Amino acid sequence: MGKALIIGAGGVASVVVHKCCQNPDVFEEICIASRTLAKCDALKDKLAGGQTKISTAQLDADNTDEVIELIKSFQPDVVINVALPYQDLTIMDACLATGVHYVDTANYEPQDTAKFEYSWQWAYKERFEKAGITALLGSGFDPGVTGVFTAYALKHYFDEIHTIDIVDANAGDHGYPFATNFNPEINIREITANGRYFENGEWIETPPLSEKKVYDLPEIGPKDIYLLYHEELESLAANIPGVKKIRFWMTFSQNYLTHLKVLENVGMTSIEPIVYEGKEIIPLQFLKAILPDPASLGPRTKGKTNIGCIIQGTKDGQPKTYYVYNVCDHEECYREVGSQAISYTTGVPAMIGAMLIIKGIWKKPGVYNVEEFDPDPFMDALNKHGLPWQEDFSPTLLD
């Protein structure tokens, strides 16, 4: 049915490649492209021999001209960007230049500033409309599935949504004293930034990890959850009419936070350049180089994740509550695709977003976040492709 160019060769890209190959009726041909060709070739070797035709290419995704040339050569129907968030705009520029649809899993952020917002990508809306192509932003889990969950709740269970609490809990254990479950540079930038949440039309900022609660999550039990800023808060605040409060919560163990505080105290989480032995380096990028590669955590990680949305609002004039979530098992993910659940929960929705564009189900000119489309096809696909969801109509609420 179609062709996909997959940019990136890390843990999430590996899941996307596996899932595309599981659906050869949709993805007849894929090309895996990354700066490190050996990683692309290793993925191809794992999956060669199936119905999906696989090719590889070396690519500097920071260079728009290189991306354009590869798109012209391969002629995909859609580009799935699972590279770094710093590269979103160069890849979007290449898609505009070639008239190809675009999907990513995280919003653009400048490399020299820990600033997460959609303004840079939303500014492309008119150009994508004029080009007649779709840019689907944030088609991972959070952002991504959390937006679809919210749109599904609004369509089926609420007349108005007033409060959204997104809770991302990882109860997995990889056995290392300290490691991050996705790109260390992005992960640590995100966690060490100020928290922020939306309430009554305003953004309220909090010191990093200063807001803590305990929440009893299905299948993994009570966990410490901390308030962070996450990019889907911005898109949901813009796209869910009448919403009054949106917060994002993530679990961290005390061991993780202790290690992070020490690293922060000695300057290793800084993104300010320093000179070391006559060379300029970024401390956080050096730390990333010595931490375990998240793609290597699959065979070591045991336990489960639970990610979902606790929603409050009204239906027929009466108060209503709703909790929709997915529980994912690290070991089951590894048995299926050789990945831990963090990469799995991001990679599967990226494939689903691309699939819905190729099928013409989620395809309209412009730049959109996932909650702006009909959620039902996506929700059905989650159940079919490894991320089944569950519902609770009387959840414990976060005050």
TrEMBL record:
Q: Which residues form the Saccharopine dehydrogenase-like C-terminal domain?
A: 140-387
- Where in the numbering of this chain does the Saccharopine dehydrogenase NADP binding domain appear? 5-136
Q: Which Pfam families match?
A: Sacchrp_dh_C (PF16653), Sacchrp_dh_NADP (PF03435)
- Top-level taxon: Bacteria
* Database matches in PANTHER family: CARBOXYNORSPERMIDINE SYNTHASE (PTHR43796:SF2)
Would you tell me the protein name for this molecule? Answer: Carboxynorspermidine dehydrogenase
Q: What is the organism field in this record? A: Paenibacillus jilunlii
